[in-house]
User: What shape does this take?
Amino acid sequence: MSKVSIKGVLIGSVVDITAFSVFFILVGIVILIHDGRSAHGTFHRRPTLTAILVISGLVFSVLGGYLAARVARHDEILNGGFSSFLCVLVSLLQIITGRSTFVATFLTLIAVPVCGALGGYLRLRQRQAETPPV
Assistant: This one.
């Protein structure tokens, strides 16, 4: 049996990226309605808003890791960590194209897989709690 569940990793990755994208769009719409200008400039003027988006992105990575581990049903931490591969690819693209600062993106490259693995760990703990002791 392979340790990495392609199905689990893909589902976790797509849920992570999609959920964050929907959240980001909703935040952008709220800013547009509230301020009457584009969200892009608003993020730079409001570091708190940027922090909220970063934290929510990490929470969605935990969710993606959890779902990847749940679908995989084995090697939960490994599959949870691999569920962050789409986020990592996007971060690498941002570094290559110069759309993000290197430091912020580099921290994302480290934090996102850790959060995905955390989601896998949470699923592992849940599965262990469901299994009665022998």
About this structure: The CA atoms of residues 8 and 72 lie 5 Å apart.
